[in-house]
Amino acid sequence: MSERPPHRVGELTVQLADTTGAPLAEREVEVAQTRHAFGFGSTGFELIAHANGERDDAELVEDWLGVFDTATLPFYRGDFEPEPGRTQTDRIRATARWFVDRGVRLKGHPLVWHTVKARWMDPLPLAEVERLTFDRIRRELSDFRGLVGSWDVVNEAVIMPVFENEPDGVPNAITRLAQQRGIVPFVHEAFTVAREADPGATLLLNDFDLSSDYERLIERLLEAGTPIDALGLQTHMHQGYWGEETMLAMVDRFARFGLPLHLTENTLLSGELMPAHIVDLNDYQPASWPSTPEGEARQADELERHYRSLVGHPAVQSITYWGITDAGAWLGAPAGLLRADGSRKPAYHALQRLVRGEWWLPPTRMRTDAEGRLRVSGFLGDYRVTAGSASAGFAIERSGSDSAFAPLVVR
Length: 411
Prior knowledge:
By secondary structure, the protein is an alpha/beta fold. The protein has helices spanning 48-51, 58-65, 77-80, 89-101, 126-143, 173-181, 183-197, 212-223, 244-255, 293-311, 346-358; strands at residues 9-17, 28-36, 39-43, 70-74, 105-109, 150-155, 202-207, 230-237, 261-268, 316-321, 364-367, 373-379, 381-387, 390-396, 400-409.
């Protein structure tokens, strides 16, 4: 089955010239896509050690870059700043530069969250917690400006003011602050601070609670003028694939806000499914949770259906798969596209066939006309045209056929 959703595909005429302005008429050239406009993402956590020269993960690098073009980097405060002022800034910045050098877009996750907490903040007065929280937003957006282009500013705000599941029994500082300030004023100020710190960043509100509670929170925030650029929707499907109908009905509910939708955290299992009676996914962590042949076949089928349906929805702008490998996977679940030994599952091949096959323009020989013009059709995104030893980049940015000519100097 081959599907090219019309809203994802465009046609552009470029007019090629050399550095003197002379058209490259009747010339054989090569055109290739270099990146999708749509964000095909995964976590970049697994490559931090490699990017910092601590380990050689060349095969994992090849697998990761063979499918994905957008990475989520970890900014969980409890890990990022385990002690006041002792941060992982240099290490994560080196990782960010490594990804950017390879054409990968980046998102930071998250700036404000009540989980993976900085325990040293818990006993502080609320006024100090507030200052530290907003200063943290300013610091990260300043330190990573030009590298990290989007941020989960607030994560899981629906449950934030009532969160009680603390392993140490000590109420966390962020929940106390959300209770005291009120969730709407608190989230609004977090976004306002983020916008001031980096006006060009894409700012997301992200949540796993996709109920009407999240919809009402979004409504209240938008009424307050909160500068939200996109909505993050988490779909960890450890208990089974929801199916296209249920997934698209959920997407439609959030599309009504008129903001781009990012499916920020997606998982599909290649082993035994989590029992349906489990309410909090964190409560189910068996001693062994292997990937199985039957589960891998199911995962591949469901993954392809999942991506086809979401790419087909015009409101969806990005899909992030939550971890390429089973090694170190969240909850120990067999949710990766690679097995723990690094071998590729059928789901990896299925996604690669879509992202870098059916929805991709590989290096293709073409010929300019007498005026140096070349008509290129493909998925929206970035492209490169090469003529001999010279080349130039261009982008197909709009769906449909673009009647204007895009002049391009090949250097």
